[in-house]
Each structure stands twice: as structure tokens, then as C-alpha cells.
Amino acid sequence: MRFIYTGSVEITLDIAQDLLRAADQYLLEGLKRLCEYTIAQDISLENVSSMYELSEAFHAISLRHTCILFILEQFSKLSSRPGHSHLIQRIIPEIRTYFAKALTKPNPHNSRL
Fold first, then answer.
1. Distance between CA atoms of residues 48 and 67, nearest Å
2. I want to staple 67 with a disulfide (CB 3.0 to 4.6 A). Which of 17, 46, 52, 58 is the partner?
3. Which residues touch 17 (CB under 8 Å, ≥6 apart)?
4. Which residues are in the BTB domain (predicted)?
5. Quick count: other Cβ atoms within 10 Å of Cβ 31?
6. How many other CB atoms are there within 10 angstroms of residue 23's CB atom?
7. CB-neighbour burial class of residue 62 (10 A; exposed 0-12, middle 13-18, buried 19+)
């Protein structure tokens, strides 16, 4: 309720996931971003899979992108861990889409020629 009236609230890691669920349900995008930021600070090799699933379940785009970057940065460590190959396979289409968009964006520097 404090966020609704003041636009700010202190979010601890203990409540961030539950608050993310509520923020998504009640369409409180500002609160959702704060929750995503708090959760993203705690991503680790042990929890990246569950954090990615959380991001998908509650349309937490920023958190999902943070998870993907973490997975790419820690690829060698994650790929050797049991149970993470399915996560890596799940993000490949999203990475492919990201690069396709990035590579097909018009370059403003080339249009001046």
C-alpha cells in the first residue's frame, strides 16, 4: 500500500518474489521494476533457473534479460552442472531473436553516406 500512495517502498529480498507476484497481478509496473531489481541482485548459479522461471511466470522482462546475461556470462560453469542444459536450451530462441533484431536495426551512421 505504501508504494501506491508514495511511489516508493523498501523491498527486501525476503518479500521481493511475493511482491513481484502482487505487482504483476495489480499491474503496478513501478513496483514490479523495483522487485525485479532486488531479485536480480541475488541471482546465482544455484538459483538462476528458478529466477528465470519466475521472470517468465510474471512477465518480468528486465529480470529475464538479467538472467539471460548471467547465463551467458556463466555458460561454462552452468553447462557442466546437472539440470541446467534445459535452461540453456530454453533461452537459445530468445538469444537468437535478440541478435536478429540487433543485427537488422538500421545504422544511423550508414544512412548519411
1. 6
2. 52
3. 35, 39, 54
4. 1-41
5. 22
6. 23
7. middle
**Contact status, residue 17 vs residue 54, Cβ threshold 8 Å:** yes
Closest Cα partner for 52 from 78, 29, 31, 27?
78
User: Given the C-alpha cell 543485427, which residue does it identify?
Assistant: 103
Query: Which backbone phi and psi does 37 adopt, to 5 degrees?
Result: -60, -45
What are the structural domains, with CATH classification, of the chain?
Answer: 2-103 (3.30.710.10)
